[in-house]
Amino acid sequence: MTSDASPMPGGNLPTLPVKRVVRPTPSIPDHEVVRQIGSGAYGEVWLARSLTGAWRAVKIVWREDFEDERTFNREFEGILQYEPIARNHPGLVHILHVGRHDQDSPFYYYVMELGDDARTGVHITPDEYIPRTLQTDKKFSGNKPLPLDYCLEVGSQLAHALLYLHSKNLTHRDIKPANVIFVNGRPKLADIGLVAHLDQRSFVGTEGFIPPDGPGTRRADVYALAKVLYEISTGKDRMDFPELPDDLPEGTVRKKWQAFNTIICQAAEPRVEECAIDSAEELAEKIDALRGYEVPSRFRLHKKKKRRKLRRTLQLLAAAVAGAFTAYWGALWLNSSQHLPEEPAADVRQDPHASAPEEESRTGYVLVTSSPAGASVYDADGNYLDETPYGPIELPSGASVAYTIKKSGFADKEEAGTVKGGSTLALGGVLKEYHPPTDSQPWKDTEGVTYLPAETRHVAQGPLTAALFNKFLKEDQQKGNYQMKREQTEPGHPEKDVALLTQDGITAYLAWLNKKCEREGLLGKEFSINADPLPQTSGNTDGHSAYVLNVTRVFQVPITVTTNPPGASVFFNNRLIGRTPIEEYVNQVPYVIEIKLPGHATMRRRGLDPQDLYLSLQLEPDKSVIFGSPWTNSLGMQLAPVGGNALVMSHEVRVKDFQQFLKATGRKAPARPGFPQGENHPVVNVSRQDARAFAQWLTNKERAQGLIDQHDSYRLPRDEEWSSWVRLTDEKGSSPYEKTLPHENSREVFPWGYSWPPPDKTGNFADQSALIYLPSSRVIVGYEDGQPYTAPVKTFPPNHLGLYDLEGNVMEWVDDSYGGPESLPIRNYGVARGGSYLSFRPKQLTTSIRTPLPENTRDDALGFRLILSSDRPAVPTAP
Fold it and tell me: Which range marks the domain in which residue 503 is found?
């Protein structure tokens, strides 16, 4: 890259470079240098690993490759000046560190972010690493035209990067597909030689990418980028310009493709006097207009030309037509689980022809729609999929999906969900018109605050008021304890009082306001509302400041987080970006960083600007949950791991546990049973609604205590989960009703095996001690357990998972409805599993027993236990 006026890195290369010799592996501080992966006109590129384990590219520039010391030093000074420039735009490869070695065989070096692997993305295998560039993308596509949305995205990002570079009085001089690399899936302009193969040399451009009027100018860079876009959009070689491919897209995409090709032809016009687009600013404007984004004023190189206001008549017409589109909704999701009690009524099983057991649905569907239709759909990795309506697409039951819906003139819409077997997950909806800040025009946020254009940003007309901050406090979902002081500005007008806030307070307010503006289409991911503190005008404000809000374009900056012990999950504004130790680029916006490690206290840091943030934290052990290991919760209840992110209470909820819930919530106590109970007996006479309310209370309680995460929650177990705990893995049917129906080779199985009666003291059933209140016909002949009513939990031996009383003591609510044919009166009943102290017949004690009950049922033999599960997000592979 070179300056129009003075040389910059790579701008004054030696005309007679010294012949290269084989050199030893260079030594770079705090990095393990692995192997050479490329070379440029005056240096080499090496693959290296930092102390935190992050892969980096290191450019080595040797003194002996220059004819004199003065030129070598000038190049080094140039890269020192370019280092902060490179880090200030997401479309440039970031230089992270510059250093110099002046001993034997002197050289200087600079450490850069490493491009993705062409085949494996962010997963780097050192011995097989090949950088992903536009050149490799072309190659792997068979040199065919790449998708239009891909081309527009690449063109926009590179044009804005070039615009920023030109605003710093620099030119690139060698833009070509091989010099555009991808970092975390984003295209970036690379320094000359960064991704060149070992046998390549490129000094001041490459044939076909240089205009007839010569290289090294802004116009030459724009010309070269246009030729790059020609190659990827047509699949042809730059020397074929302006020939078109034989097969052009059809329908509305064809018109958009032709408009894009017109932009390319205007920028790649070889005759200077005929060239309609000769600046990066104009190229970025044209592409963004085609994509529906307004060009920011941040790096304009010339005064903005007068332009006609564009009325989106066609878009409004499309919206009206698409508004009549009815989303496709698919099959019914069958509820699961349940069984019949003591002796199920005969009519529950009668007429097997009324509804044949349905096959368990192993797949479902996803349908993505939008109004207006014709929006582009991208997956979670940013890959273009299709236009809306997209689908229905068949996927396995339980699959998690996430999509971003984009359309010119509308705000991006992010949608996510989980596929359920036998049904269609419908995503999408009405798109919000996109109204971000534009040049020379005032802009209003969702709260009615006006922002006026001021150089590179829009600035609010006055400080944040106490009235607006109080509105935030009322709507704040996290219920933070944010303190505010008031400063009176105009007596008699309290609505104009200024809010004096701590940094925590203003950060929380900005997060709330940014989210609201995004939802309403006023901001996109490329803009952010920030705040500047005002100088103190009064006495002691005790750490509180007044703030003026502003809207700026978002850039990415590096942060580093290390912890002891390592492996903690790092959340940046509620988005999981990886595990420690981590070096990552994040948006330069007000932030809240959370560091979470199971079994350790969560740590939080807030701020207005994460630029070069470095955190090295010692995590303190606590009593929080660790999934996969036994755990004791805040009530002293032991929970056992049952696979995945799930723990189940090893015993039923006790009387003393439920009493804490009643005391904390003020709910009415359930009726006392007709027998005495101690505090360690299972609570009874609770409905399913009561059980769910207890689960919600316990979830909130332990989240507040920091014992469980916001993604963790207590709930009733599902029927299929309960079955797995008693080793029922081959049940037929999808609903509890269907699983009770007899099938070929079905056989009654008890928790203790196949024999009857059960061995003594197997569990709490209707035994001989119950003869004090039960007739002999309703007890198990010859069986002794010594407990006539409910027994203290954990009185009898646990099963193979360490779970107590699944077979007896009290029946337990599960979360499913009973199901069955439409004609079945009890199909919407709740379900209880297991036997109780009243069970005496073999059928009542089989592992498959399900009792259908109205969910408001309260009974002396009915209780519950809970499962603690989590939907904590997975660590991203390509943040």
Answer: 443-553
